[in-house]
Structure formats: structure tokens, C-alpha cells
Specification:
Two copies of one chain form a homodimer.
Chain A (H helix, E strand, L loop, with lengths): L3 H23 L12 H14 L13 E4 L13 H13 L12 H5 L3 H5 L2 H13 L4 H14 L15 H12 L3 E9 H5 L2 H5 L6 E13 L2 E12 L5 H10 L5 E4 L5 H8 L6 E8 L6 E2 L10 H9 L2 E4 H4 L10
Parallel strand pairs in A: 1-2, 1-5, 2-3, 5-6, 6-8
Antiparallel strand pairs in A: 3-4, 6-7
Helix pairs in contact in A: 11-12
Amino acid sequence: MMSRCMARIWGGIPTLLIYLLAAVPAQAADPLRSWADGPTKDAIMEFVANVTKEGGSDYVPPEERIAVFDNDGTLWAEKPLYFQLFYAIDKVKEKAPEHPEWKKQEPFASILEGDPRKALEGGKPALMKLLAATHSGMTGNEFHESVSNWLATARHPKYRQLYTEMVYQPMLELLRHLRANGFKTFIVSGGGVDFVRAFSEETYGIPPEQVVGSSLKAKYQVKDGQPVLVKIPEINLIDDKEGKPVGIYQYIGRRPIFAAGNSDGDLQMLEYTTAGPGPRFGLLLHHTDSGREWAYDRNSHVGRLDEALKAAPERGWTVVDMQNDWRTVFPFEKK
Amino acid sequence: MMSRCMARIWGGIPTLLIYLLAAVPAQAADPLRSWADGPTKDAIMEFVANVTKEGGSDYVPPEERIAVFDNDGTLWAEKPLYFQLFYAIDKVKEKAPEHPEWKKQEPFASILEGDPRKALEGGKPALMKLLAATHSGMTGNEFHESVSNWLATARHPKYRQLYTEMVYQPMLELLRHLRANGFKTFIVSGGGVDFVRAFSEETYGIPPEQVVGSSLKAKYQVKDGQPVLVKIPEINLIDDKEGKPVGIYQYIGRRPIFAAGNSDGDLQMLEYTTAGPGPRFGLLLHHTDSGREWAYDRNSHVGRLDEALKAAPERGWTVVDMQNDWRTVFPFEKK
């Protein structure tokens, strides 16, 4: 017969185990506290509950719980220009004294005259010149440091916040909620992979090896006895539109079950993700909040959203209405 | 005052916790039981102990514990030919009836006559023709299925084992030991990334998103309403020699602290990995076992090892002598 004391010991253990096992996922009572109550939040919570319910008809094993997020306009803001372009502009200004010829050469001349939009009217050739001048000819480490230093001091023209503060609080909560439920979260960005890797781990908890993005080619060299990777001004991958499923296929090698984006550049990623068998979630963030952020869609130059918004109802994608679905937009609002 | 019973409860909990926490890492007493006792095994055990010792001078935080492994000749065998070539050869034979012209076209003619070495004397153009015929023009899913089916039935010409049985038991233990100590293990293979992804998770416990390899380009298409990725016969990345650090930089985005290889194709990966600051481990597997496996190095056509072996002493790489350092080579030996 079990002694009373032993019974108390064994009786206590299950409780202890429950505390130990529950410690991480439980966190706070509401993991999505910056999301307003309503159908959008419910849809997310239900999807996560369904795919993690062992024995349930929608159960997905942890190794297949891949979630992909666009970055510009989905995890952090993208107005008035992609933040990476502000970096490039600042670097052009910094390097201008060594390049007097830039005063007469586009896209540099317009940048130096304070008109970046005009600079980019030159399309892809202009962009390539800008990237060649500011994103190549250095080692991967040098670029990483340059971006880190810039992010530590440069401020958003309107909000006067560090760019890494211009992230969406509800999306940070969503990333955490997915990871607490066994998801592996990836960024799949049209922006430069090296640029995003310089802050993704600290800002989003997403390590470099889970960032897919546009990239230049790189060359391996031994320089003064030190092996380095030198960024060269040739496109390796444009991770936008059709390039997003290609990037996912090449880097991740398996189809996600959850995808979040905010523009037509994310259409194919959402299409590819949600066309697979079993439970799928497509999230499309609609910027509807001219007060706290910006309101834009089909007429916007940056982050244009038209086709993807039209496709959402028939594809069953969940459209997030920023103004109504988010109680908080930026973390600094709460301070 | 604490009752005697409460004291027993609280006294019992630390023991329980230790069991719970130790359950995974401890496994068996010796995590590398197929490795012979001696300096090689000691070097590995010490490195792992040092980088995981919190507060120690060699401590490395978990997110930086990246370990990369070559595949052919490092995780599984590569003789008499890379196993992926056996797949390509079998596919050529299978498709030959639809291609009567192959009887007069290299590299197909030599393959059909049973002389794959002669077929490959045509160098890169011959290899590209072979890849175009057997590794492209289908979707990623179709290729994955084709490889899975082949691996489930095809047998090694000498050992008559499935190819996925031709893996090195000591390396399986090493992968597990590293992961149990917070390492993230990656494959960085000269072989095709899609080919390796078809078996890496089941065979090595390495998920597709942690496999870097050579690749063809891919194109996104919607075919009969279904989004697919079609493999096209153009090289995307040759993940060999200088291409290995490039692949690591592009896919992983951070320098590993542990690298294992077996040929000159791994020289740059080992060089790049071990030249970084802090504790580093370079492992070079030397195939010295003509009895249980094969003995080969600088005169070998497949898996040539010359420069890397010469570089090992000055770089401080640990050379594994297969014959002396491994108690078991293949898992099936033990049966």
C-alpha cells in the first residue's frame, strides 16, 4: 500500500509537470493582445489551435509548420520609401565627396539634390547602379556592420524613431504565438537578404538562416590570409512576385502552411502557400490607417495592393484591416 | 517548520527535474559509441564540452552553434560513383525507349552501354546534358517523388544495401551529439540540393531548410490551376570548392563554427569555417579502410583528397582515420 506521504509526492508530480510543460506556450492570457477581438483574430487563433491539436483532422506535424512573412509593409513600415532605400541614399551622400562625377550622373545626381523618387524613375538600370555603389564591392561582414551602424542611429523622416522601432506590434505577437506553437518562422522579402539579416534576429527573433531575400552574387576570396565573401554587382535572385515561391523552394525546400504579405509582390507567395493540401492560412495586411500609419493600396507606388486584394475572397485569404483589427500599430505608441 | 513529508516532496523534486532535463542529452553513457577511444574522439568531445560550458572562455551561444557537413563521402559513401549519378543512370535507362537517338549521343550512348565513366569524360557539357535529361523539365514535387521511389528500391552495386543504409554510423552519432548540445546541423553538399532533401530528414534528422547544395534554376508556374515550381536546365549554384562558402553565406548567412568534409571540394568550407575568431572545429574524414569501406585519397577520381590533407596540420583540422578511429562504419554491420 502506498504511504500517505508517497501519495502526496506522486499526486504533486503531475501538477509540477503541467507547470513545467506549460511554462513556455502559455505566456500571457492573450498572446495577440494588440489585435482587436473579432473575426480576424479568431481566424488566426483557430488556425493555430487546429493545426496543433494532436489527433484532430487538421493536425500538422511540427516539422511542416512553416510560416513565411514578407518584411516591407508586413513586419515593418515601408513609407514614404522602402527603408533600405534610405540606407542607400545615406550611403550615396556619405560617399559623394569621393565621387565628384556623381553630381552629373543619375541616379546619384537626383539623390544628392534630395529627389530620390526622380532618381528611381530610371527603373532597374538606375536601381542596379545604386546597388552597385552602395551594396557591393565590400565583404559580407563589412556590409553587415555598415547596416548595423546605420540602423543604430538613422531615424525615420516622419516618426523620428529608429527604423527597427517602426515594426508592427501585432505582427511581433503573431510571430511569437506561431513559434510558441511549434512553427518555424521565415522572412521572405523582396528586400536584400543581407540587409534584413542585419537586424532580423534582434528585431523579430528570426535568425539569418531563416531569412530569404533578394541577393547579389558573392565571390569567395582569401584576402591577406583571411577568407572573405565579396559582394559583386550582379543579381543572384529577385525575391519578389514569382521570385518568392522560387526563393521558398530554393532556400526552404518545402511549402509553407502560413503566409503573410501586404502587396501584389506577395500574391504568388500566398497563392503557392494556400494552394497546398490540408489547412492553410493566407494573411493579407491592408494598410487602412491614415491616422496611426498610412492608408494605401492600388494607387500606391510603394507597396501597391490591387490584384492580391481582389483575389483574397475567392482564395479564402484573411484580410487584416489595420485600422479596425489592430489595437496598437507600433510598439512606441504604448510608451 | 517544514513537515517531514513536505521535506520529502521538495527533496524529491530536484531529482525529478534532473531526470526530466537530462532525458534528451544524456541518451546513453557514450554518445559517440562507434568512435574508438583516442585523440580524435577526445578532440570532438572536448570541443563540444567547451563551447557549451556557460561562463567558460570558449562558450558559444546556441544561435551561433552552426555545424556544416559535406554529404558524399562524409555522411554517406561515394564509391564507386556519387550515388546521385546512379540515380541519373537509372533514369536514362528508364527513359531510353522514348529516346532512340540516345544510342548515338553522348553521354547517353556510353551509359546505355554500361560505361558511365566514359560518359562522364565529356566533362561539364556531358554532365549538363545528363542533368537536363534526368533532373529538369519536371516539377519539384515530381522530382522529389522520383528520388524517394528510387531510394526505396535501388541497391548499392557492391553492398546490395539501400543507398540510405550506406551512411556512416559514427557520423549519425556525431550529428545527434551536436544537436543534443544545441547545435543546428546543416548539409552543404556538392550534390543536388533537391536530391539530398528527398532523404535528409528521415536519414540524418536534417530538415530540407537546413540543406544547401548545388541547384538548377526553377520557374514558378500555375499549371491547370495548380501552382508548381518547374526545374529548368540552367545552373543556379555549384556548391563545391569556392562555391561552398558562397552557399553558406547565401543560405545560412552566418559563419559555422564546425565543419566536416572529406575531399578537396571541402577545402574552402573548412578554411572559411576555421578562420573565424573563437573556438572552431575542422574535421577531415580520411578514407583509409579498404576492408570495411574503401581506401582512397589523392589519386581518386571521386572524392579526391590531396590539398586539404596537406593543409590539415597547419590549420589545426582533426583528421579522422576511418580504419583506426571508427569501431563501426555502416549501421548494417551491427546487425
